[in-house]
Design goal:
The chain has 8 helices and 6 strands; from the N terminus they run E-H-E-E-H-H-E-H-H-H-E-H-H-E. By secondary structure, it is α/β, with parallel strands linked by helices. The chain is globular. The two termini are 20 Å apart.
């Protein structure tokens, strides 16, 4: 696990059974072809610029062996919009910020003061720009994911229904962006 925040690395060391390093996804300190697969679970939504995101994806490709896979998680723009406007008071102090989120994926406020929220098509395009092949993007939690995050108690029946929706619509271009996260995969 690599993270640019030393305190996050220290926390991971306490609980993980893996090597932890302080580092930056845009400049990985590993030789070419070091891993069978690479997972970027966070850097893309913390990198504001497209150039930086493609650089991180390209570094992941570089350290992944030929035939291996790069997996990259992103937060869909629609999910971020829903979180920003569901508490309607968010529109009162910063309507322009919410419009910037809708138009370009720039964070309005909250957990990611600087970062980026993707559309599935944009994530697909960035994976291709990083010279990955056989690219696909799927929704992870499905269209009921945000609803499940807002309730405190979920019955097994509700969970199974949400899971069925997630599987059914995971690669639907019209619905996958309703997930809380999307996962792009490309082959080296």
């Amino acid at each position: 696990m690599i993270d640019p925040v030393a305190s996050q690395v220290k926390t991971a060391e306490k609980y993980g059974t893996f090597e932890t390093l302080v580092g930056d996804a845009r400049t990985l300190d590993f030789p070419d072809d070091s891993f069978d697969a690479v997972l970027l679970a966070g850097p893309l939504y913390h990198l504001v610029g497209r150039t930086d995101r493609i650089r991180a994806l390209s570094e992941a490709r570089r350290v992944c062996r030929p035939g291996g896979f790069v997996h990259a998680a992103a937060i869909p723009r629609f999910s971020a919009i829903a979180v920003a406007i569901l508490p309607w008071k968010a529109l009162n102090p910063a309507p322009d910020a919410v419009l910037d989120l809708i138009r370009r994926g720039d964070p309005a406020a909250g957990r990611f003061p600087a970062g980026h929220f993707h559309t599935s098509e944009e994530l697909h395009e960035e994976l291709v720009a990083a010279e990955l092949s056989n690219v696909s993007v799927v929704g992870l939690e499905g269209p009921a994911g945000l609803a499940l995050e807002t309730v405190t108690k979920v019955s097994e029946e509700d969970f199974q229904a949400a899971k069925r929706l997630a599987v059914l619509f995971q690669d639907s271009s019209q619905i996958r962006d309703l997930s809380c996260h999307v996962l792009g995969t490309g082959q080296v």
